[in-house]
Amino acid sequence: MSTIKRVAILGSTGSIGTQALDVIQQHSDKFEVEVLTAFNNKDLLIKQALAFQPNVVVIGNENHYLEVKEALSKHPIKVYAGDKALASVVEMETIDIVLTALVGYAGLIPTIKAIEAGKPIALANKETLVVAGDLITKLAKKKAVNIYPVDSEHSAIFQCLVGEFHNPIEKIILTASGGPFRGRDREYLKNVTKEQALKHPNWDMGAKITIDSASLMNKGLEVIEAKWLFGLDASQIEVIVHPQSIVHSLVQFEDGSIKGQLGLPDMRIPIQFALSYPERVKSNFERFNFMDYPNLQFEKPDRQTFKNLDLAFTALVRGGNAACSLNAANEIAVAAFLQDKVKFLEMSDLIEQSMEKISFIKEPSLDDLIATDKETRIISEELISRK
Ligand code: NAD
Ligand code: MG
């Protein structure tokens, strides 16, 4: 049997996707690309396909299909387009692991299909666990499929748990950089621009997660993601601000001992670990030096200024379809902020108001979640257009 893992990358043209390809290129003896997918960025998708020669590529936006097909016509690469193709390619027998590096709710159905087909998941797409954590984790258990976290905080926790899976977690401590607006008050935040919000101090990421980091919604989504990945209650999840992003997160065990995982902020480490687990693969990434960081800081998050963290905890405690509507309203709010249709602080109000209007379903089916997502988006759009 070949020891090479064949990887399907959903969202290969994004920040996580391109870094995953960097990892794969550096370890071509361990990984090969089976599937590449992107939504709009056809030029980069074509370039990647020519370089990595996958079996299949999928372009989400069907308008680009002919161009991608034509560009790859001299190669043995199948080209498909659209959402349905994205949801069915993950079932291919030749795939060993699916990296979900696409952004937002669009990850939900492909992730479900991949788990149903028995594929291990390297999960970057946190929104899927926010929307349907209960359903996804139950399905993964039923299918005996492992979900390996890619998000740096969750990878840190996972790395702390290796060798400890039988030991109960007392609590986890999720670290947050605080984003570009750490220490600012509501008066300052009233008129901040998208350009300011898009300047993250430590990480270079896609636009949506960068805005989420500035508004602390990213940490809120990560709290919910952690609940599902590690089977925790809200009371077991603590968030602390750590501006240098060196301590990626920590686990406290029942004897009071705390384990953390540290390193320079480089997503290629968690991406690589999710693909190579249980092995660690030798890398040439820059090493961390304590003497460069003599003053690591830790602070309490400012929950009065950044309301999204509490909104996420509320959704987590409420359960049911609450986090699904939180996610949908947030996706609409971020898109509107990026189009200058709402202001920075208005995003939290929009999310809170949208969530209040959605009827609560305690044990939602997949169809209920799809309907909740749709309804919330309509409500949020309506609230924006009434402004
Ligand atoms: P990105 O915007 O850079 O890339 C997103 C990718 O998804 C692109 O390849 C795009 O073509 C594809 N895509 C977008 N919309 C799609 C749709 N509707 N259907 C199919 N494909 C679509 O985003 P990113 O920063 O790489 O983040 C990807 C995911 O990983 C997000 O869920 C994010 O929260 C998570 N994540 C990212 C980082 C990071 O450092 N970038 C860290 C932790 C977690
Ligand atoms: Mg993270």
Automatic annotation (TrEMBL):
Its cofactor is Mg(2+); Mn(2+). The keyword Oxidoreductase applies. Keywords: Isomerase, Isoprene biosynthesis, Magnesium, Manganese, Metal-binding, NADP, Oxidoreductase. It catalyses: 2-C-methyl-D-erythritol 4-phosphate + NADP(+) = 1-deoxy-D-xylulose 5-phosphate + NADPH + H(+). Its EC number is 1.1.1.267. Residues 262-377 form the DXP reductoisomerase C-terminal domain. GO terms for biological process: isopentenyl diphosphate biosynthetic process, methylerythritol 4-phosphate pathway involved in terpenoid biosynthetic process. Pfam families: DXP_redisom_C, DXP_reductoisom, DXPR_C. NADPH binds at T13, G14, S15, I16, N41, N125, E127, G206. Mn(2+) binds at D151, E153, E222. Residues 7-133 form the 1-deoxy-D-xylulose 5-phosphate reductoisomerase N-terminal domain. 1-deoxy-D-xylulose 5-phosphate binds at K126, S152, E153, S177, H200, S213, N218, K219, E222. Residues 147-230 form the 1-deoxy-D-xylulose 5-phosphate reductoisomerase C-terminal domain. It comes from the Bacteria. Pathway: Isoprenoid biosynthesis; isopentenyl diphosphate biosynthesis via DXP pathway; isopentenyl diphosphate from 1-deoxy-D-xylulose 5-phosphate: step 1/6. Catalyzes the NADPH-dependent rearrangement and reduction of 1-deoxy-D-xylulose-5-phosphate (DXP) to 2-C-methyl-D-erythritol 4-phosphate (MEP). PANTHER family: 1-DEOXY-D-XYLULOSE 5-PHOSPHATE REDUCTOISOMERASE, 1-DEOXY-D-XYLULOSE 5-PHOSPHATE REDUCTOISOMERASE, CHLOROPLASTIC. This is 1-deoxy-D-xylulose 5-phosphate reductoisomerase. It comes from Cyclobacterium marinum (strain ATCC 25205 / DSM 745 / LMG 13164 / NCIMB 1802).
